[in-house]
């Protein structure tokens, strides 16, 4: 009778949780601990952590595959958040996470980050073309200063593979996909390119008062020529 929330509390990530529930919903049964170990996507490290708390009880109508001992241990590290992040881990990760390559499971090990926020972070990362500094996490919808302060020392950025936009070739629709390029900014860039024939660098547009220094600082890491 283990629930979806309880599986997340036990430390399972999204893929093995879905596999577990689908298997059970289709009538699958666990007859010993090795059956649990065979769940697709369940890392050996996670299985070893939950194994002491697994009890197989064969009943006519259902299987009880866990006992209550895990609650005392895991409830202190996990909370249920009914907002955008349904499963929120408030325990501290012991390994620093590189935010340009982390997946939802890795982000979810950070305090205050559940699968909901993890997906939002990755979605925004894709729109940006990658993070160039940690502070950009605060631009993710719903991301609070409180959450940022919890994780700031647990994450780092490798900006070597940032996706860049060629400002001499990009069309309006290409620029508009990026969150830093407003309609007004795009029109000014395209107008400047039309007049000059070619943009050599960001600084020349600032010098010619086509964009502000603040705008330049934001788009410079994502621009090429």
Please provide a written account of the structure.
The chain is mostly helical and 225 residues long. The protein folds into three domains: 4-74, no CATH class; 80-156, AF1531-like domain (DNA polymerase, domain 1), CATH 1.10.150.280; 165-224. 41% of the residues lie in helices and 9% in strands. The chain contains twelve helices and nine strands. The strands form four sheets. Strands 3-4-6 form a three-stranded antiparallel sheet. Strands 1-2 form a two-stranded antiparallel sheet. Strands 5-7 form a two-stranded parallel sheet. Strand 1 (57-58) and strand 2 (63-64) form a beta hairpin. The longest helix is centred in the middle third of the chain and has 14 residues, at 115-128. The chain is elongated. The protein starts with a helix and ends with a strand.
Specify the CATH class of the largest domain: Mainly Alpha
CATH domain topology of the largest domain: DNA polymerase, domain 1
**Major sheet summary line:** 3 strands, antiparallel
Give the overall average pLDDT. 81
Say how many strands there are. Answer: 9
Question: Over the alpha carbons, how many angstroms does the gyration radius reach?
Answer: 24 Å
Low-confidence stretches: 59-92
N- and C-termini, Cα separation: 59 Å
Q: Please, what is the CATH homologous superfamily of the largest domain?
A: AF1531-like domain
Strand content range:
5-15%
Task: Give the structural class.
Answer: mainly alpha
How many separate domains? 3
The CATH architecture name of the largest domain reads: Orthogonal Bundle
Report strand order across the widest sheet.
3-4-6
- Share of helix among residues? 40-55%
> Order of SSEs, N→C?
HHHHEEHEEEHEHHEEHHHHE
Number of helices: 12
- What is the overall silhouette? elongated
């Amino acid at each position: 009778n283990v629930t979806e929330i309880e599986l997340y509390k036990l430390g399972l990530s999204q893929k093995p949780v879905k596999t577990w529930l689908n298997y059970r919903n289709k009538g699958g049964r666990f007859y010993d601990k090795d059956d649990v170990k065979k769940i697709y996507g369940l890392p050996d490290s996670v299985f070893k952590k939950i194994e002491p708390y697994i009890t197989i009880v064969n009943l006519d109508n259902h299987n009880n595959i866990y006992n209550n001992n895990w609650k005392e241990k895991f409830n202190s590290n996990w909370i249920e958040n009914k907002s955008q992040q349904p499963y929120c881990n408030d325990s501290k990760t012991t390994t620093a996470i590189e935010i340009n390559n982390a997946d939802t499971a890795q982000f979810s090990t950070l305090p205050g980050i559940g699968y909901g926020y993890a997906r939002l972070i990755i979605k925004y990362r894709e729109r940006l073309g990658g993070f160039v500094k940690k502070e950009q996490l605060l631009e993710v919808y719903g991301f609070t200063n409180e959450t940022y302060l919890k994780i700031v020392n647990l994450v780092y950025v490798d900006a070597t593979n940032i996706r860049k936009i060629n400002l001499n070739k990009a069309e309006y629709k290409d620029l508009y996909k990026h969150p830093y390029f407003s309609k007004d900014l795009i029109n000014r860039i395209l107008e400047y390119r039309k007049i000059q024939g070619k943009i050599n660098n960001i600084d020349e547009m600032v010098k010619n008062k086509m964009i502000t220094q603040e705008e330049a600082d934001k788009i410079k890491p994502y621009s090429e020529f």
